[in-house]
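Appendix B, example 12.
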Amino acid sequence: MGTAPAVTSASIDAKTIRKIRVKILPFLFLLYVIAYLDRTNIGFAALTMNRDLNINSQQYSLLVGIFFLGYFLFEIPSNLLLHKIGARIWITRILITWGIVAMLTGMVRSVGHLYVARFSLGIAEAGFFPGIILYLTYWFPQREQARAIAFFLLALPVTSILGAPASGLVLDHVHWLGISSWRWLLILEGLPAILGGILTYFLLPSRPDEANFLTPEEKRSVRAALGAEDDHKRQTHDISALQALCSGRVWHLASIGFTMTVGLYSISFWMPQFVKSLSSHYSNTAVGFLVTIPNLVGLVSMILVSRSSDRRLERRYHAAIPAIVGAIALILLGTTNSPALSIVLLSLVTLGIYSFYGPFFSLPSEFLSGFSAASGIALINSIGNLGGFVGPNVIGYIVTRTGSLNGGLAAIGISLFASAALLLLLKPDRKSLMK
């Protein structure tokens, strides 16, 4: 292990790191809760929306997947603009735009309108996630990044833990003004994005130098530590934004992200319907509460795995082993009809998927910085998010052909195995900060 990580981390004292965590991460976490809720709440809306609009399994799969096509098209330019214009202004724009589109989605009258709304939502939200991953590199040295990313990504399980019961309750009890409950679900859950955008403009500093909560000495220490890491990257990996887009290592990471995201969004969009299928006696509210159990497991495992990854400065195995656990659990899901065992297996699936992301998204910043980081991280995420289009559509196709989710879940398990294999084939970067 090289000495660079210890040197750069030591120049930022623990008190400063804690202050940055407290001031920056909870707010970013809240924003991602809002983002993930707005892109996945259609999974709960489908419990009644599909019947109202006569949506079949394949149409539903295209609806959830088309979001990621819009996201893919605008991800890289959005991230480059964030790096150039500044995080505060650009993230404000993203939030307000997607909040408006999310609310308008609750007013659609046909499947065709819903296709347009979901595609537009992807365009509006493009750049948010990779933008935040890039933004965290402005504040945290390598030794701290997996935990910082994992704290931000805790929004994935927390959104389901809080959002699933809330969504179920809205579907069962909110029928105001004679408007369908699934419409209210989309409208009410889109409003926080607009409010979050306004708060972002006033509360989120673009860089440490703009942070009122840091003293001048603390700002200098952060600038010096991160500057030293950037200099090291430029000395060992001097690549431009365009070169990052052509980098074999970037594309290797993008393929890993793709195969894992196939699993993430397949589970996110289909889990409510899968749990509902376990018993005809489950109400929408009951489904919402049952969905929280796997997500609680995923939350705890994400924290533990990312902490271990930072402590050991090891990323590949910390991401690959959970992926294998999730893959095995997905394949086994199709072998049981027991509701209790199914929830246990779903918990292992979420453990595998959520634990993967903290270590994985620490890998690009080992060798990318500045505009190369902006373009490289955006490419990894945009290619990865195409898995959000492919995965649900694969399940929808198999459900249409077989009438069962089991075959689709097994296919997604194979994708997680592929993700683990690609991780293990990724050669350690001997030039990086982490050797």
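Residues 14-425 form a domain with the Growth Hormone; Chain: A; fold (CATH 1.20.1250.20). The chain is about 80% helix and 0% strand.
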